[in-house]
Amino acid sequence: MTSSERRQAVRGAELRFSIPPDPRLSGRVRHELMAFAREQGITEGDLADFIGAIGEALANAIEHAHTNEPIEIAAWVIDDRLFASVQDHGVGFPLERTVTKTLPEAYAERGRGLPIMRHYCDVFSMRSVPGEGTRVTLGCHVHRATHTQAHHCA
Ligand SMILES: Nc1ncnc2c1ncn2[C@@H]1O[C@H](COP(=O)(O)OP(=O)(O)O)[C@@H](O)[C@H]1O
Ligand SMILES: [Mg+2]
Questions:
Q1: Which range marks the domain in which residue 11 is found?
Q2: Higher pLDDT residue, 151 or 125?
Q3: Which ligand has the shortest distance to the CA of 135?
Q4: Which of 93, 107, 118, 144 is surrounded by the fewest CB atoms within 10 Å?
């Protein structure tokens, strides 16, 4: 059993796919994630901020990884939590600063992505190895058709 199969067996449904680092594919990624969430009975109103945060992780992988290696995207659900990860195999970067939850000024042109991920997600974890790549994992509480727990995102 591969580690991904084991994760699937333990956690239930899982979505996995990869795309080339092309910004024109961001819409497709959004679409795939929304479709997966719908299949899991997740209320769409819960998703906007989370999908936006994943979009920032994807934008970073496309813009900053500096590689043509595919970007791997995964999503999975545990009870009333939706998780997604974006992994690139690019240049990576040193994680020397704690990422702040404070959103940047409205007119800021750079530096928005990581604070947005941190602010809008209950789970934010990033692993980056210079020369190897970066993986961001995000998680958010959601409402599910079969679950009644409160939504804590944002
Ligand atoms: N996937 C990645 N690969 C390499 N560097 C990254 C990656 N994601 C983030 N970074 C680094 O972290 C910085 C901050 O990211 P972010 O907050 O999204 O701001 P911005 O993308 O506007 O620079 C980036 O400028 C880049 O140096
Ligand atoms: Mg960014």
A1: 3-141
A2: 125
A3: 1
A4: 107
Residue 153: inside a domain: no
Residue 152 lies in a domain: no
User: Residue 98 above 90 pLDDT?
Assistant: no
Residue 129 covered by a domain? yes
For residue 35, the CA-to-ligand 1 centroid distance in Å is 27
Number of domains in the chain: 1
Could you tell me if residue 75 is inside a domain?
A: yes
| CATH number of the domain that residue 73 is part of | 3.30.565.10
- Nearest protein Cα to ligand 1, atom 14: 111
DSSP string computed for 90-120: S------SPPPSSPPPTT--SS-HHHHHHHH
Per-chain residues with Cβ under 5 A from ion ligand 2: 60, 113
Nearest protein Cα to ligand 1, atom 8: 60
